[in-house]
Amino acid sequence: MAYQFQFLPSAGKWLAALACLVVVSALTQSLPAAEKLTVYSGRAERLIKPVLDEFTAKTGVQVDLLSSGTTELVNRLKAEGDRTPADLFLTNDAGSLEQARVAGILRPLNMREVDRAIPPQFRAPDNAWIGLSGRFWIIVYNKTLVKPQDLKSLLDLGDPKWKGKIAIPNAGSEYLQAGVSVIRATYGDGKTKEFLEGLRDNAEAQVYQKSSQIVEAVAKGQASLGIVNHYYVYRHLAAQPAAPVAVFMPDQQDGGMGAIMNVAGVGIVKSTKHLDTAKLLVEFLVAQAGQKLFADLDKEYPLHPDVKADPALVERKSFRAAQVPLTRLAELREPTLTLIEQVGLR
Amino acid sequence: MITTRAQLTSPLQVVTLASAVLILLPLAYVTSQALSADSAVWSRLWTTRIPELLTNTVRLSASVAGLTLVLGVSTAWLVTRVEFPGRRLWEVALVLPLAMPTYVLAYIYSYLLGFGGPAEHLWQLIAGPQGRIFSPHSYLGATLVMTLDTFPFVYLLSRSALLNMNVSFEEVSRASGISRMKTLWLVTLPLMRPSIAAGLALVILYVVSDFGAVSLLRYQTLTYAVFQQMTGRSDNTAASILSLLLVGLALLFLVTERWFRHRSRFYQTTGRYRRAERHRYGWLGTSVITGYLMVVVGASFALPAWLLLAWSFSPEAQTTIDSRFFGFLWNSGFLAACAATGGVLIGVPLAYMANRRPNWLNVGCLQAAYAGYVLPGPVAALAVLVLCLNATPFLYGSVFVLIVAYVIHFLPAGLQSLEPALQQITPNLEEVARTLGLGVRQTWQRVTLPLMRNGFIVAWVLIFLQTMKELPATLLLRPVGFDTLAIRVWMEASEEYYRLAAPSALLIVLLGLPTLLLLLSKDWRAA
């Protein structure tokens, strides 16, 4: 415990004593131990903690997992600069990772293990961040309310026939931002805006903070369909196999843009004092055993070519992904945010 | 004498000024950031977000004000003007909802009224399997939760107005042959007007600055939008602009409340005080009254508290009570203790100087300290954050920043009890001590501080308890991973893990109960 202390209040002076403690404890953050890593994570705790626990079990290295919002963490890393306690930054959006790289927060890496395990399109050119697992932005639908043949493209969800039937993530969601960036890069601002306006009107009040809530709402029939990352659906199904939800892989029609892909990834923070231990964690995450954890626990698509995804998932070879390079997500982001705000998504 | 006073006051003077600067600087930074923002950002916000956010905020305030008016005044009238069994118990029970932070009540109602929740099941028994009730994640839901949480403000103020009112006015009216109902309309209510208005302004101030309920019920208000802008974007310009609007709005209601509260003094009892006679109704009237109060207290406190208890003892929730849970409890307590101590340490010199040397500088400093009233949590967080990034980036991400935000935010609550404590000490006592040979410091230690002790303790406890349940500033400024009870409630509840959120929520409610005792005894403004 970083903030634990003991003191005996002596009459009349306890106020001053406590005041000193405020300052002292505020300034002394946890002391760095030799075999300990601090990870800033923008991923939901329950998705990443089991993987890190496995790492600790295997290597004996303690991992301090500090979870928060992705954008918040990038802002925080920028502000903390060299003072940051973080050794690694782990998050769920390539755009944010690339932004962190451009801001000079992350450290370029030269590791053979990485080059061998992860295909180059899923990492930064200098390996400052490395993709760990793939996820697709898909349509989740309630099987009793919607037939899959009624669905084709994400962009159709702006159609008024879905009014009041769609659940969407809120405007601060990095998945939504990345998804909209890909649509903009593929179809241009005009069409994207039209789509977003339709989506805004159709969703009405069903704008959620968490993807798990969207799946929940669709499963209960509160919404007929929703837009989420695929693994939230499979995780829901793993817990409740009878839930009437299914995944629709959108935009696979001829000439369609393909499903929107993003990766969760990791980067080593430039100022880390535990470079070797940090590299050990990266190595663990990209190796077959680590990749298998993402596949089994989180129902994501492992990026290591030799590791199979969970058999419940849509076969990866059976669908196309959109052709927008992950590294472009960073530069696309600011204008995307402006567009989202113009449309007035919540 | 004068020179020794000066010896004491000069370092205090410095402290006072420094505190005022510390409080005002963040606000100034945000204001300047908002005003210096690119006009394109302003116009974009005006055409997109601001109209919706302003309408939503005003609409919610208006409906909550209307409903709390009815609930607050009617309950206050019942417990002061009618005699029925258990009256004294109800008198206390009607304050209990103030112990429920809005986010706790909001999460309970999103379960109760939620899709497929118990309320809907009940309704489906009547309306058939397709029956739907209104969604709690809406304007109606937010109105309901905020009303249930804030009506005690109006109740408390109306109650004290009714208790202190000179009953002769009513008696004259009755003696002139005017019916009971008409007397209520023509005499009693008009006399209560200033108190009611002050209560309503307080309610609106509370609604405008609430973050917990609107975020869990996903109802877009200005306060919620500031938070979303801060967490979703990499620059704070838009957040600053929205904050500035919010501060303006809050200021408006604070001034209104002050004005009415000032006026209300003229209406207080003069001459002989006598208790108003309490009317007794028959068994029917009595059971209607009891039923009404049961519904109000049940919906706003008893039912939610019972659910929290039941959930807390569910096996699911029991698994969360481990060493981590006590870590969160420790974090909450640690932060609250620091904030309370900091608040008292800063508050005492401010209040002392303004009362002992009431020149424009010291009074101005004290007024500045009340700025926290118009800084909703996310705005206080933003203000401190902006200041910290510009002036002391090395402090970013430490608990220190968070504590500064708490102190700014809650100092007014502390000052409310420090100020009267100081005013009651006559300077003569200090002067006597000096003439009897005590030094400056000794006078402070042996006369002034002991006399102020009660005010100290009340202020400390108030800030401590407020900080325990604070949510938005904690969310925005805490060191990464440094979770408190309030954060755990919010995080579990926002993923609809109702049971897992219950133990922390229950603890917060229990810890809030002592505040109510203080409230009932004197300081009704504190919660």
Structural features:
heterodimer; A: 346 residues; alpha/beta; D-Maltodextrin-Binding Protein, domain 2; ten-stranded mixed beta sheet; 12 helices; globular; disordered N terminus; B: 527 residues; mainly alpha; MetI-like fold; two-stranded parallel ribbon; 23 helices; 78% helix; 1% strand
Describe this structure in words.
The complex is a heterodimer of chains A (346) and B (527). Chain A has 346 residues and is of the alpha/beta class. Chain A has 2 domains: 36-134 and 263-314, 3-Layer(aba) Sandwich (D-Maltodextrin-Binding Protein, domain 2); 135-260 and 330-343, 3-Layer(aba) Sandwich (D-Maltodextrin-Binding Protein, domain 2), CATH 3.40.190.10. Chain A has 12 helices and 10 strands. Chain A has helices at 14-27, 45-59, 70-80, 94-102, 112-117, 174-187, 189-203, 211-220, 230-239, 275-286, 288-298, 328-343, and strands at residues 36-41, 62-67, 88-91, 130-142, 166-169, 207-208, 225-229, 245-248, 260-268, 301-302. In chain A, strands 1, 2, 3, 4, 5, 6, 7, 8, 9 and 10 form a 10-stranded mixed β-sheet that branches. In chain A, helix 2 (45-59) links the parallel strand 1 and strand 2. In chain A, helix 4 (94-102) packs across helix 12. Chain B is mainly alpha-helical and 527 residues long. Chain B has a domain at 1-36 and 332-484: Orthogonal Bundle (MetI-like fold). Chain B has 23 helices and 2 strands. Chain B has helices at residues 2-35, 39-47, 49-81, 87-93, 102-112, 118-127, 139-164, 168-175, 180-209, 212-216, 222-232, 237-264, 283-312, 315-318, 323-356, 360-369, 377-391, 399-423, 427-435, 440-469, 472-477, 485-494, 498-521, and strands spanning 82-83, 279-280. In chain B, strands 1-2 form a two-stranded parallel sheet. Chain B is globular and about 70 Å long.
